[in-house]
Amino acid sequence: MFCGFSCYKINMTKKKIYFLTGGTGSFSKKFIEILLKKKLAKKIIIYSRDEYKQFLLQQNHLVKKNSSIFRFQIGDIRDKDRLNFSINEDIDFVIHTAALKQVPATEYNPFEAIKTNIIGAQNLIEICIKKNIDKVLALSTDKAAAPINLYGATKLTSDKLFTNANFFKGKKRCKFSVVRYGNVMGSRGSVIPLFIKQKNDKKIYTITDKNMTRFNITLKESVQFVNMCLSKMKGGEIFVPKIPSYKILDLL
User: Fold this and answer.
1) 154, 162, 174, 203 - which has most CB atoms within 10 Å?
2) Pairing of strands 175-181, 183-184
3) Has residue 66 got a pLDDT over 90?
4) DSSP 3-state assignment of 144?
């Protein structure tokens, strides 16, 4: 399902309980900010494996101001027992952002990528069906379309798991969908911060192919798009935003 930015609209009249895997990442932090500013959340549960990043997030002024609605839980999506303990039936929406995402790292550590991106996804799906969660939305990547690397292949497999979960959920109310978009501008580990650093250092840029193009979306746009998908999803969709692309050399 392709959607342009004109269809970005948050249409939620009742505050919801959110569970965020990878809850301290770039997307999740922006997602939390907008939830708080729009007053959409009754409770926000942060689930991640890095205690220091959770500590830093707790120091954020908006989070501090709304600390009563936050719950911070240390855990890994590979750990099914921990997920089972952390996810309860009161949760309305699960936003799945946890993944191993760096292409070179996943190529060099293929088993680890499979454990997190595929087995972790299966763990989350099974627990969400067990707990009868209303809506589960998984964040994917444009690299999952006709993948040429392991990262893209694991995310394509994960996407298939989430969309097909709608067929074996039985009589449960759960809906599973996927959001697939391009590179988030300025996010941690992305090309723009890398090029800025390389420009300040030796002015030598590491480019795989001069003909490369990239789809681009801002953090704010990605959060708005996810909120729109939450309001519209019926289960089984792969939502793809219509976003601009640029040539990699245009950044230099």
Assistant:
1) 154
2) unpaired
3) yes
4) helix
Helix extents (H) in the chain: 26-38, 51-58, 61-65, 80-86, 103-108, 110-114, 120-130, 150-164, 191-201, 219-232
SS3 label, residue 157:
helix
- Out of 135, 143, 155, 175, pick the active-site residue: 143
Say if residue 11's pLDDT is above 90: no
**Residue 214, amino acid:** R
* 132/148 Cα distance (integer angstroms): 35
The whole-model pTM stands at 0.87
Measured from the Cβ of residue 211, the count of other Cβ atoms closer than 10 Å reads 9
Phi, psi (rounded to 5 degrees) for 142: -65, -20
Q: Are the C-beta atoms of residues 32 and 72 closer than 8 Å to each other?
A: no
Alpha carbons 73 and 188: distance in angstroms, whole number: 22
Q: pLDDT, tens digit, for every residue of 125-146?
A: 999 999 999 999 999 998 999 9
Tokens linked to 76:
């890994």
Give the N- to C-terminal CA distance of the chain in Å, as an integer: 33
Q: Are 96 and 139 in contact (CB under 8 A)?
A: yes
Kindly give, in sequence order, each residue whose CB lies less than 8 Å from that of residue 146, ignoring residues fewer than 6 positions away.
none
Site of tokens 């809506």: 135
Say if residue 64's pLDDT is above 80: yes
Distance CA 128, CA 173 (A): 10
DSSP-derived letter for residue 117 is I
Query: Does residue 65 have an active-site annotation?
Result: no
Q: Is a pLDDT exceeding 60 seen at residue 219?
A: yes
